[in-house]
Amino acid sequence: xxxxxxxxxxxxxxxxxxxxxxxxxxxxxxxxxxxxxxxxxxxxxxxxxxxxxxxxxxxxxxxxxxxxxxxxxxxxxxxxxxxxxxxxxxxxxxxxxxxxxxxxxxxxxxxxxxxxxxx
Length: 119
Hints:
The protein is of the alpha/beta class and about 120 residues long. Helices cover about 35% and strands about 30% of the residues. InterPro entries: Anti-sigma_ant (IPR003658), STAS_dom (IPR002645), STAS_dom_sf (IPR036513).
């Protein structure tokens, strides 16, 4: 039996949602060691007036570096005039957002479709 991989993994994919906005899907751990993977994708994302939704349904863990990157993305979207929303926050991540007051910074919705509809 092999040992589990000790290095956190984050998969970041980007695709257009059928309703128009760009959908960025994160799966894995969003932390100090993986945030550069997300940053690289965000750097190449076209923030248009149609908007961007980040799907966090598959995020297993998010530390302060991950939250900082989400705040940066939100600011970038705002500067570009692009609507921005988060979808699929886990109970743990929602609790962190509550404690840190991040619901004032982000619009978040239970599902991607609800986030897209809100844009």
